[in-house]
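User: Quick sanity check before I run a bigger batch. Here is a single chain. Can you write out its predicted 3D structure?
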Amino acid sequence: MPRRFTVVAFLCLGLLLAPSDIELAFAHRLMAKYRLLPGYQIQLESWFDISSESAKSAEVLVYRQNGELLTKGSLNDKGVFVFEVAQIETLRIVISAAGGHRAEVTIAARELRRAWPDLPEPAKAEDAEPFADRSPTVAWQDVLLGITFVLALAAFVMSMRNAQALRQTRNGNLNQDGPNQ
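Assistant: Done. Predicted structure follows.
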């Protein structure tokens, strides 16, 4: 049984260390940022952090501070959604993309008040272009966590092999000492 476990452990370790596309090796998060536009409009942008792909057609729900739904819609092909607000209040924006990915953004009322002291002309929503830096964001903590996992797995496999060697050594010593006594 321990030998079978060792073989399985080495196969798992081999799969982890096998060359592969880095995008497939890491899970990706749904990212979101917003920008305040003239005319009490808010431009929301969402994308996946590793691939920088837009979260096309992701559902967007905008909630008021009291939890009431203010507006809803979908991101366009560029990953952008623009909506207008009629009053200054804290907003909670939830973006839900395929595969269960979800991002949430909160915009404080004081930020809206600071940005819009008066009401300028509205911007055209269809002219909205992406604005956020979409460069891949693989944190060094993620890389360190992966290396730590591989080292822990290797230590576990080595401890199993050492335990097996100790059992064999004890069994060998008992067999040699047993009949002579």
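Residues 140-177 form the longest helix (38 residues).

User: Great, the batch can go ahead then.
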